[in-house]
């Protein structure tokens, strides 16, 4: 596997520790995150199978033989990246990195999808690229400090008003979904995922 955005590495390091045959090569653009993640990976004893590199994923992973990419991409929607925490900016609609990833060569993409970051556009891009959603796990989260930053919250409200996402005054939904092109997995739960993200199927088809 390859990974876009390492973060603190704790979740993936735990998976690697439990699956002796799994190797993951990860990239993060934040040097401090890379240093912290490498410490976690070393502590878990999986540094030989979970490598963390400082740099751009799309440049580093180009030509990789890996078939699966995993990511929890930045998904704050805002007109620009001049935010309290710029590393969380996901483009004007919040889904820029995920849509770019779905335009790549990967057979499988395991990704977090936020209900306020134009999931309609994300699911449309996935379908256009030949992906099906074969499984997902959705959960509610509270709107926090960064999603309540005024320019972010205004953009979230714009997307919700345009039927391109969902959030209420206090919360939103996040789903971890498997997008696949594998011919062995023919089921498609895209409409179910849309429902779990509080989207109507008519909105998805619009």
From TrEMBL:
InterPro entries: DNA_methylase_N6_adenine_CS, SAM-dependent_MTases_sf
Keyword vocabulary terms for this entry: Methyltransferase, Transferase
Keyword Lipoprotein: no
Gene3D superfamilies registered for this protein in UniProt: Vaccinia Virus protein VP39 (3.40.50.150)
Molecular function GO terms recorded: methyltransferase activity
GO BP annotations listed: methylation
Residue runs in coiled coils: none
UniProt-listed SUPFAM superfamilies: S-adenosyl-L-methionine-dependent methyltransferases
Name of the protein this chain belongs to: Methylase
Organism the protein comes from: Klenkia terrae
């Amino acid at each position: 596997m390859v990974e876009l955005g390492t973060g603190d590495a704790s979740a993936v390091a735990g998976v690697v520790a439990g699956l002796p045959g799994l190797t993951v090569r990860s990239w993060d653009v934040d040097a401090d995150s890379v240093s912290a993640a490498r410490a976690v990976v070393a502590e878990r004893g999986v540094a030989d199978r979970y490598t963390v590199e400082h740099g751009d994923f799309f440049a580093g992973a180009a030509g990789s033989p890996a078939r699966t990419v995993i990511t929890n991409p930045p998904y704050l929607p805002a007109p620009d990246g001049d935010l309290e925490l710029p590393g969380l900016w996901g483009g004007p609609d919040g889904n820029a990195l995920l849509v770019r990833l779905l335009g790549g060569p990967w057979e499988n993409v395991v990704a977090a999808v936020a209900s306020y970051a134009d999931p309609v556009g994300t699911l449309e891009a996935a379908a256009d690229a030949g992906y099906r959603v074969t499984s997902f796990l959705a959960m509610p989260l509270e709107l926090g400090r960064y999603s309540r930053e005024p320019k972010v919250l205004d953009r979230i409200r714009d997307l919700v008003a345009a039927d391109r996402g969902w959030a209420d005054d206090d919360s939103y939904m996040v789903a971890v979904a498997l997008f696949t092109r594998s011919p062995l997995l023919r089921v498609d739960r895209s409409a179910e995922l849309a429902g779990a993200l509080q989207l109507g199927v008519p909105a998805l088809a619009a």
